[in-house]
Every structure is written in C-alpha cells, then in structure tokens.
Amino acid sequence: METQAELLTADTELVQRNKHVVDTFFTALETQQFELLREVFAEHGRQLNPYVPAGFPPSFDGSEAIYRQYSSLPQQFGQMRFPRTIYATDDPNFLFVQFRGEIDIKAGGKYENDYLGTFRLQDGRIVEYTEYFNPLVMAKAFGIPLQ
C-alpha cells in the first residue's frame, strides 16, 4: 500500500513529465520541428478552437491533422515565439498554459495575441488541447471581417 508521500511524489513526477510534453509542443512550433507533434499528441488527440472566426476549423482531429495544420504554417509565417508559463492543477493529467504568440508574418508585419491553452494528457500524450485567444486581435491582424 502506497503512503501519502509516495502518492504525492508520483503525482509530482507525472506533472513534470506532462509539463515536458506540453513544452515540447511549443518547442516544435518555435523550432519548426513539426514531426515532434506526432510524438506529443495521441493518435486520436484533438485541438479545439472555440473562438476562431468563420471559415476557420473549430477543431483538428487526430495527430496527423494537427501535424498537417502546423507544418503548413511556414508558408505564411517566419519565426514563431511563444513565451509561456505552464501551470499544474489538482489533476496531474490536466495542465493549463498562459502564453503569448509573437509571430512574424512573411508578407510583412507581426501577429501578436495572448492565449490560454488547456491540455489534457493520457499516458504521456496530449489527448485534448483547447486554445483560447482574442479573435478580435486575430481578425484585425489578418483583415478578417467578423460577423
């Protein structure tokens, strides 16, 4: 039978491993090593985008769809930076991240927005990532009419 201290240590270690997985997601974007996305997302993993403007997908379903989405970004974007803080919760498999997107646009200019992401993990892989951001900032940066 495990003691309270052993359970706490196990949870702390799991949180640290999960934080590393989430950090690897951001590192993959910043370094454009998009193949890492296949490693950090579960095959059935999803990214939910609840506040995207019309015409943008509300989700990417499956690790391959997530890989295709992000690996296409260098066509329009240069350097991407995501200064971030990763927070644990009472559930070691649920983390949230406060971050800022600082993205160079190849056509000129920069896109910057503040984000909150929630990450649910299972067996060391992301099974659900929900990305919250200000859609007004996005629409203005890319000239997207809001309805």
From TrEMBL:
Family annotation (SUPFAM superfamilies): NTF2-like
Coiled-coil spans in chain: none
Signal sequence range: none
Residue ranges annotated for the SnoaL-like domain, each copy included: 22-129
Name the record gives this protein: SnoaL-like domain-containing protein
Organism in which the protein naturally occurs: Solirubrum puertoriconensis
Species classification: Bacteria, Pseudomonadati, Bacteroidota, Cytophagia, Cytophagales
